[in-house]
Design a protein that fits this description.
It contains five helices and 18 strands. It is α+β, with helices and mostly antiparallel strands. The chain folds into two domains: 127 residues, Diaminopimelate Epimerase, Chain A, domain 1; 148 residues, Roll (Diaminopimelate Epimerase, Chain A, domain 1), CATH 3.10.310. A hairpin with a 4-residue loop joins strand 4 and strand 5. The termini are close together.
Length: 290
């Protein structure tokens, strides 16, 4: 099976062209094996490039643990780059069918290659039951963190100065946003898996800690649902932008610094859509013998 590895801000995925080649029979199991960074190729997950009757192509995305996700913002930018660079759709504006619906990408082309892409991520979903979470709605904004004071996870959060109020946003996939004065102090490996699998999130959740520098700039770290600590999360950066605007911490335009690079976000007042701009890079191609 031929694959190509691409990364956006260090969020790396393995892409398989299922338009010109037969799709893998068991993509969930394949994703677990091929994503392993010691015994496989190594990636945050597997993305299939599939034919679509409604768009230029359809994206199916599998996390490193084999679970299928509705969307991946960084993965979608790389998906658009693959479509253009590999001749599947040589257009400066592309449409991609996802679990979130059909999304539009605008490409910046240099020397015949797509380098930066802007994705129209659509409108954020804010209703509690649609995120989904069992926390009381209609929206979950600055909600007190419902952890017992004697829980070890609460101590981890308290000791690194995290504001014990959470905000939930869906960008087609669920996100939890917490704020703190210094994201480098967060014990992400200890807290992330507990919050991801918390019973109040029936479909699990992506966890983000954000440090506000100004109304237009943040630094964030992510524990990604199904993949653990990642260098970037595009939909998560969109969620941080929306959460910051809703809670008055930031404005609607935001520069987000992630461990793997920077993303530019805008929650437009004109159409209520979130727009995300960032790089996409092809790393290498290879053959997987299963």
């Amino acid at each position: 099976m031929r694959f190509t590895k691409l990364q956006g801000c260090g969020n790396d995925y393995l892409y398989v062209d299922c338009i010109n080649n037969p799709p893998p029979r068991q993509p969930a199991e394949l994703s677990k094996r091929i994503s392993d960074r010691h015994f496989g190729v190594g990636a945050d997950g597997l993305i299939l490039i599939c034919p679509s009757e409604r768009a230029d192509a359809r994206m199916r995305m599998f996390n490193a643990d084999g679970s299928e996700s509705e969307m991946c913002g960084n993965g979608l930018r790389c998906f658009g780059k693959y479509l253009y660079d590999h001749g599947i759709a040589r257009k400066s504006e592309l449409t991609v069918e996802t679990g979130r619906g059909i999304l539009t990408l605008r490409l910046e082309i240099r020397n015949g290659k797509a380098e930066r892409l802007t994705v129209d991520m659509g409108e954020p979903i804010l209703e509690a039951e649609k995120i989904p979470t069992t926390l009381p709605g209609p929206r979950v904004l600055n909600h007190p963190l419902p952890l017992k004071a004697d829980a070890p996870e609460y101590a981890c959060i308290r000791d690194c100065g995290v504001d014990p109020r959470l905000t939930c946003v869906s960008m087609g996939n669920p996100h939890l946003v917490l704020y703190c004065p210094d994201v480098s102090r967060v014990a992400l490996g200890a807290v992330g898996p507990v919050l991801e699998t918390w019973e109040i999130f029936p479909r699990r959740i992506n966890v983000h800690f954000a440090q506000v520098h100004s109304p237009s700039e943040v630094t964030m770290r992510t524990w990604e649902r199904g993949s653990g600590i990642t260098l970037a999360c595009g939909t998560g950066a969109c969620a941080v932008c929306v959460a910051g605007a809703l809670t008055g911490r930031t404005g609607r335009k935001l520069l987000a610094h992630l461990p793997g690079g920077d993303l530019e976000l805008e929650w437009s007042e004109k159409d209520n859509h979130v727009y995300k701009t960032g790089p996409a890079v092809e790393v290498f191609s290879g053959e997987w013998n299963d």
